[in-house]
Each structure stands twice: as structure tokens, then as C-alpha cells.
Amino acid sequence: MASPKKKLQGLVAATITPMTEHGEINFSVIGRYVDYLVEEQGVKNVFVNGTTGEGLSLSISERCQVAEEWVTKGRNKLDQIVIHVGALSLKESQELAQHAAEIGADGIAVIAPFFLKPWNKDVLINFLKEVAAAAPALPFYYYHIPALTGVKIRAEELLDGIQDKIPSFQGLKFSDTDLLDFGQCVDQNRQRQFAFLFGVDEKIFASDQQLLSALVMGATGAVGSTYNYLGKKTKQMLEAFERKDFSSALNHQFCIQRFINFVVKLGFGVSQTKAIMTLVSGIPMGPPRLPLQKASREFTDNAEAKLKSLDFLSCTDLKDGNMDACS
Questions:
Q1: Residue 172: beta bridge partners?
Q2: Given this model, what pLDDT does residue 5 score?
């Protein structure tokens, strides 16, 4: 009998999907990517095929291939590999969930369908229940991101009684700036030991902007794109918080915010995340897939200068050809 899956917690990198200049997935660099996260950033948990990974811009076949590559390359290196399996079609979500179970993923996550939308809590739970049932042995997480889905059902309301309907439900990836809703999720579910993963998407604001506030309110972990290249810095903040050195934790938070605030003003999203990751890691992430446009050279130059000014990046961190690869 397989051992029970662990609950997702701590720092989780929302993975980028590397692509070639022609918009095809560059599977060849995912092994290097795993090693970089573990060895350079100290991040051992990943969230695959989400917003940052352009999951909904990939075909079902591509999503399966990406998930397989992360599970294969991450074996014995990563602690937790959670696959986002949300889709507009229930059948496609079920297919992706079943595939995640077959390849040995550690959990699945699902966003609300956002074209033909569920109009109340019960309808949304019915959809999520059918997806979870396709992989009943895997921990199931709801990916709450109302700014992008347009589904405004409060997470607090959704969690009320959810485990009675979805026994594999383990927690929430909370990608919204409504800290009142987040706080009520934590407060009203203290006995249930859910994972409360704070993960505000770049299009709303980067996770690092509010993470310390979320930790104070009871977040058990965080999912974000910036942890791909600022994982080590963010871990310093988490460690200071855990030892109750709140002054140091706040200083780390403010330092990270200086960079996030700077790039948000320039225009920050998936394209820019790919550019920064290429710059910092030396691993070519390539351009995004249409309709997104690649980050400008001006953005990359400005981001590089800011990273250096904050001592997040030294000249020796840059690999030859980085700038050409990400601009």
C-alpha cells in the first residue's frame, strides 16, 4: 500500500515552462532547472502548469509531458510536486488529474472554470468534486484566483463543509489580495489542519509583497513565481519569522518589496518573470507563448540594474549570453 502523501507547505516555486524562440516547449533544460531550484535557491517544492507556467496556453498533451518531465527530473531531489490540472472542460481536468496520479505527482490543484462559470458555491464544489474523484489518492488543492477567473465566490464560503464533499481536499492556494477572506479561512478551519498557501499572482501583485502579513495570519506556506530566483532571500525572511525575529523578517520583506515594487511599475507578468529567471539562473526560459509578448530589452536592463543595486545579483552571477536569451 502506498504511503499517504504529505501536505504541501513552506516555500513553493510556481514553475516557468521553458520555450524555444519558436514557441515549442524546451524540455531539455528542466533537469537543470530542478537542480538550480534545489542547489541555488533552496526550494524543494514546485507548482507546475499554473499561471506562471502558462498551463492554460498549453495543449493537454503538452501539459502531460511537462508534468512527466518535472516528476521524472525531480525524483529524489524535490519534496513536493503539485500539478495544476484546471481546465474549462471537466473531462480535460479529469484526464489531467488521472495522469498526475499515474506519474506519481504529490498533489493536484484546480482553478474554477472561467468561461462558463459556476454561479454559486455548490456548483463550484460539484465541479471540483468530479475532478478530485479522478485521482482520489492525491491531495487536492483549490486554486483561488478570482481576479483572473472572474469567479467571485469567497474562499471562506467554499471551505465550509468542503471535506465532506471532497475527502481528498487538503488546502487552498489563495491568490487574492483580500486578507480578510484569507484570515477567515484560517480562523474558521483551525481544527482541520488545511494547508493555507498564500500565492498572489503577478497580475494582482507579487506574493512577496504581502507574504509576511499572510504568515502572521496563519499561512502555512507560499506559492509564487519570484521564488524561482528570490527563493533564498525569501527563505531568510521565513526563517527570521519562525525564530520570532520579526524585525529581521520585516527588513527582509521590505528589501524584497523594493525589487517587486520597481518591476511592477515597469509592467510585471509571466513574460517578465521568464526574462528575470533567464538573467539570474543562466537557464534559457525563452519567450512566452502568444498572446503574451516577450519582455523588452529595456525591462531586462532595468531589472538587472535593480537586482545589482539591492545586492541580489552580482556580475559573476550572470552567465554568458543571458541578456540575449531573455530580452
A1: 142, 196
A2: 72
Position 200 scores a pLDDT of 76
pTM above 0.85, yes or no: yes
Grid cell of 142 as nine digits: 483549490
φ, ψ of residue 197 in degrees (nearest 5): -100, 115
What percentage of residues in the chain have a pLDDT greater than 90?
Answer: 82
Backbone angles phi, psi at 320, to 5 degrees: -55, 130
277-288 burial, b at 16+ Cβ within 10 Å, e below that, comes to: bbbbbbbbbbbb
pLDDT at residue 209, as a whole number: 62
Long-range contacts of 288-291 (CB under 8 A, 24+ apart): 288/19, 288/54, 288/57, 289/19, 289/23, 289/54, 289/57, 289/58, 290/23
191's grid cell? 481544527
- The sign of the CA dihedral 38, 227, 63, 271 is negative
Alpha helices per DSSP H over 38-149: 60-74, 90-103, 121-132, 146-149
Q: What is the mean pLDDT of residues 18-36?
A: 97
Determine the pLDDT at residue 168. 97
User: How many other CB atoms are there within 10 angstroms of residue 253's CB atom?
Assistant: 21
Query: Coil, strand or helix: which one is 172?
Result: strand
pLDDT at 163 over 80: yes
Taking the C-alpha atoms of residue 104 and residue 135, their distance in angstroms, rounded to an integer, is 11
Peptide bond into 113 cis (omega under 30): no
Number of H helices, E strands in the chain: 14, 8
Looking at residue 153, its pLDDT comes to 96
CA pair distance 49, 67, nearest whole angstrom: 8
Give catalytic residue positions.
143, 173
Contact 15, 146 (CB under 8 A): no
Relative to beta strand 140-144, strand 107-111 is: parallel
